[in-house]
């Protein structure tokens, strides 16, 4: 069983044309899983609906508590990309299970999104990686504490 925690981020953004801005909507994760032909073997837990730039240390503590209180050994977390590395580092003491954070550079609701690929990659990674905390984005795996988002290149890289 894979426990999936949703926290918001670009993957769940909705574009409101009238105000010309994005806001975090309901998670599309159940729909993305269904489209990927994944219909069982998981539980979805909503924790937050925030842009990661708006996340605070209290929010990271809330994510930590939700994951720590979960009995599952395989955990996926949807997260905004801007502060994903900080949350992964906050979770790094939970090294007795496999925790994979992922998100998207473009909202899942958009035609050109990396959300479905990133979900599929994270789904595989959480089942294959040894216990630890990881970020998977765009076909790469990074260990917590050894990754950052390169804003100019719009990708994650090892540090």
TrEMBL record:
Transmembrane spans: none
Active site per the UniProt annotation: 10 (o-isoaspartyl threonine intermediate)
Binding, substrate: 52, 81-82
Sequence ranges assigned to domain L-asparaginase N-terminal in this UniProt record: 2-150
GO molecular function: asparaginase activity
Protein name: L-asparaginase
Phylogenetic classification of the source organism: Bacteria, Pseudomonadati, Pseudomonadota, Gammaproteobacteria, Pseudomonadales
């Amino acid at each position: 069983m894979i426990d999936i925690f949703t926290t918001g981020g670009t993957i769940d953004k909705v574009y409101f044309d009238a105000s010309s801005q994005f806001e975090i909507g309901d998670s599309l994760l159940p729909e993305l899983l269904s489209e990927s032909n994944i219909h069982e073997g998981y539980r979805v837990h909503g924790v937050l609906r925030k842009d990661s730039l708006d996340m605070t240390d209290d929010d990271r503590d809330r994510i930590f508590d939700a994951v720590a209180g979960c009995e599952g050994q395989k955990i996926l977390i949807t997260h905004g990309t801007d502060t994903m590395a900080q949350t992964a580092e906050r979770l790094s003491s939970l090294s007795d299970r496999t925790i994979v954070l992922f998100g998207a550079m473009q909202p899942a609701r958009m035609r050109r999104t990396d959300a479905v690929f990133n979900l599929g990659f994270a789904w595989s990674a959480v089942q294959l990686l040894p216990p630890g905390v990881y970020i998977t984005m765009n076909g790469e795996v990074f260990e917590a504490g050894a990754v950052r988002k390169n804003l100019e290149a719009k990708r994650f890289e090892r540090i």
